[in-house]
Design goal:
Elements: H1 2-52, H2 56-73, H3 76-92, H4 96-110, H5 121-134, H6 138-152, H7 159-179, H8 183-197, H9 204-220, H10 224-243, H11 249-265, H12 269-291, H13 301-348, H14 350-376, E1 379-384, E2 390-394, H15 406-409, H16 414-417, H17 422-429, E3 434-442, E4 445-455, E5 463-469, H18 471-496, H19 499-515, H20 521-552, E6 561-564, H21 565-573, H22 577-582, E7 586-589, E8 596-599, H23 601-618, E9 624-631, E10 635-641, H24 649-654, H25 673-683, E11 687-692, E12 698-705
Parallel strand pairs: 7-9
Antiparallel strand pairs: 1-2, 1-5, 3-4, 4-5, 6-8, 9-10, 10-12, 11-12
Length: 709
């Protein structure tokens, strides 16, 4: 009787536990949906931020993940937003044909979203038309511009907004017709756009864009007087917008470009040159600003595909989890049954209890043994959860890394801590083992770890990894690489820059040997002066090479001293007086006699010798070499100017670089000496540069501190 009552109570308890588990399952599902909706909004916000930063591939990644999640939730408004943003990303990247399907899909999804006022159809139709126009599909572009105009006509509730939108599309149509040589249509739409946007409260920048397109049309059709009138009107608008700090830099650049063409066609060379110069300055400025941002992204289509697969697996995991919760509830009941049976069994057998305790003790001893072993091994063993956070870390691999410990790793995002392991982490989350070497800096020191990551079989999407400290090996490899580069520089100097002077000495010696009886005293004196100059140059180069070699060593300590710059130039020029006399070259030392600076005397002498040598070599007969300097409270800037043939920008870019192969001798910087000069100036906490215009000579400059830094 008591046994029956016990079993009945037991089964009622089991049913109660099962009911709690199923209720928890429903609550968990509702919470999961809310979490996913929050994640959709976060992905949209992150994508918008990345778009503003012009990190387009990263933005596409966020939008695409959000799109997949919104499709899983069947959220029509979210699908509208993500399709539109995906299309805009592709458009900004210049992938115009890829942008069109996304925008069209957004138009379709608009009908499934009750709150779609923020995404007006004429704006999306205009974007599609622009994409077709950029893809040279003029007929399709015109068709969609007209569709956009039809959509604008339905904006009866806001006439001003409809007018502004119409003015923008008129301007786009005018530009398209101008490129298609349909000048009458182009002029009609551009004037209509200007008339709309010139009104108060409308977008003046759109009016400026249309005015520039109209000026271009007039230039193409040789209507120069009308073009000049439009130029003046556009300039007034640009100056007004500049005063309001709301001017488009591209419009200013285009104005100077078209103005240059106008002056050029009207035989006004000075004005044309001024406009072209300003255009190039603005062009360079804009390209410099956007060069590192606009299109520095890598293609991530493979990653997007993999993430898509992971999201599909995630959806399947959710279904499996629902079944798993029910199974867990059943297992809980079974565990209770087993626990009761164990309790009954333990009551019957103290011997079994003793054996169980011995087993638990053995397991505990094994755990302590493994823990002690891991804490003394030179590795890091860690776990990462599906969100990328480190949840556990043991091992002695961080003992040699200052300010870091295993406890500090807990809770840190692994992707942010080791970005160079991102691909390996994602591969492990996808179910495959991966191996990579990562490096991170601590207090100006780099530490290297050889890392292997594996899928965590106990946690879906989790990672188990271990990293071996290979810092010593990697540092040794880096040092060997530096020594090899240094050796190559030494060999390059010895094989190229010292070969020519020694060859000259040998040839002169052969001449003296073979024709000594037929050489006059004057000729002999000239040969001896030439030999002295060549030998002096070689010795100077060797001295500079030794100084440079010492400065390249890690234990080199730079000790600056007070140097009289005027006297240093005079000393450096003494070697080249004979060569200057032969070419009737005059060197003007315009440096004040009392001007001093902090530098290494021998290094500075080497630099000045090489700069004067180049100026002497490339100056024409009867030329003038001017040496001047100016100083302020911080630095002295020296300038050596010659009247040689000058250099191109490409030649200037290669001046201070060590080349794999020597360049012809009629170029500045043919040898290795300028590279050594560059390194020496850097050692003296200075900077060196060159300026030149082909046909107008060259100017070499360096700046050094007045006082010791």
């Amino acid at each position: 009787m008591q046994r029956g009552a016990f079993l009945l109570s037991f089964w009622l308890l089991s049913l109660f536990v099962l009911n709690i588990a199923l209720t928890g399952c429903n609550r968990s599902e509702t919470k999961s949906i809310n979490n996913q909706k929050s994640k959709v909004q976060r992905l949209l916000t992150d994508g918008n931020r990345l778009m503003k930063e012009r990190r387009y591939n990263d933005a596409f990644d966020r939008y695409y993940n959000g799109f997949l999640l919104a499709r899983q939730l069947n959220d029509g408004c979210a699908l509208l937003q993500f399709n539109n943003q995906l299309g805009l990303v592709k458009y900004r990247q210049g992938k115009f044909t890829e942008a069109v399907p996304y925008i069209k899909e957004a138009l379709i999804k608009r009908s499934f979203c009750a709150d779609s006022d923020a995404y007006e159809p004429h704006g999306m139709l205009n974007t599609i038309a622009l994409a077709y126009e950029q893809s040279n599909m003029a007929d399709s572009a015109v068709a969609y511009y007209n569709k956009a105009l039809v959509a604008i006509d339905k904006l009866h509730q806001n006439a001003k907004r409809a007018g502004a939108a119409r003015g923008m599309i008129y301007g786009n149509l005018g530009g398209l017709y101008e490129r298609e040589n349909k000048y009458s249509l182009s002029e009609h739409f551009l004037k209509a756009s200007i008339a709309i946007n010139n009104r108060p409260g409308y977008d003046v920048n759109d009016a400026i864009t249309a005015e520039l397109k109209l000026a271009k049309l007039y230039l193409r059709t040789k209507r120069n007087k009308e073009a000049d009138s439009v130029f003046i009107q556009a300039k007034e608008h640009l100056e007004r917008q500049q005063a309001l700090h709301d001017v488009n830099a591209m419009s200013v650049k285009d104005w100077y470009y078209l103005r240059w063409q106008y002056f050029d066609k009207n035989d006004m060379p000075l004005a044309a040159y001024s406009a072209l110069k300003r255009f190039n300055q603005l062009k360079d400025s804009i390209e410099f600003t956007t060069k590192g941002l606009a299109y520095a992204d890598m293609e991530k289509s493979f990653q997007v595909s993999k993430q898509h697969q992971q999201l599909v697996l995630f959806a399947k995991d959710n279904e499996i989890k629902k079944i798993s919760i029910a199974l867990i509830a059943t297992l809980v009941v079974l565990v209770i049954i087993i626990a009761v049976l164990i309790a009954l069994s333990l009551q019957r057998s103290k011997k079994h209890n003793t054996r169980l305790q011995e087993t638990l003790d053995a397991l505990e001893r094994s755990q302590h043994f493994l823990q002690g072993l891991l804490n003394n091994l030179p590795i890091i063993l860690y776990q990462i959860d599906p969100d990328g956070k480190i949840t556990n870390s043991i091992g002695a691999g961080l003992d040699d890394v200052p300010d870091w410990s295993n406890d500090q790793l807990i809770g840190v995002n692994a992707f942010e801590l080791a970005p160079d392991l991102t691909n390996a982490f994602r591969q492990a989350m996808g179910g495959k083992a991966a191996r990579a070497v990562n490096a991170f800096a601590v207090n100006d020191d780099k530490f290297y770890f050889d890392t292997t990551v594996l899928p965590d079989q106990t946690t879906a999407g989790g990672i188990i990894g271990f990293a071996v400290d290979t810092t010593a090996v990697n540092r040794q490899a880096i040092r060997l690489t530096e020594l090899n580069k240094f050796k190559d520089k030494i060999l390059s100097v010895l094989s190229h820059d010292l070969r020519a002077p020694f060859s000259s000495i040998i040839m002169a010696s052969e001449v003296l040997k073979l024709k000594s009886k037929h050489i006059s005293g004057e000729e002999l004196g000239m040969i001896m002066l030439g030999l002295r100059e060549t030998a002096s140059k070689s010795i100077g180069l060797l001295e500079g090479l030794l100084l440079w070699a010492q400065s390249e060593r890690r234990n080199f300590v730079y000790h600056p001293q007070l140097v009289n710059l005027h006297n240093n130039i005079a000393e450096a020029n003494g070697v080249y007086l004979y060569a200057q006399q032969r070419k009737n070259i005059s060197l003007q030392n315009n440096i004040p006699t009392g001007l001093t600076l902090m530098a290494h005397h021998q290094m500075l002498l080497f630099v000045n010798r090489n700069l004067i040598s180049n100026a002497t070599k490339y100056s024409p007969d009867g030329g003038i070499i001017s040496v001047s300097a100016r100083a302020d409270n911080k630095e002295v800037i020296l300038t050596i100017t010659d009247q040689g043939a000058g250099m191109t920008a490409e030649q200037i870019n290669q001046l201070f670089k060590i080349k794999d192969k020597p360049v012809p001798d009629n170029h500045h910087g043919a040898g290795i000496a300028l590279s050594i000069c560059h390194d020496m100036i850097l050692q003296m906490n200075g900077r060196i540069w060159a300026e030149s215009i082909p046909g107008y000579g060259s100017m070499f400059c360096y700046a050094l501190p007045v006082i010791n830094q």
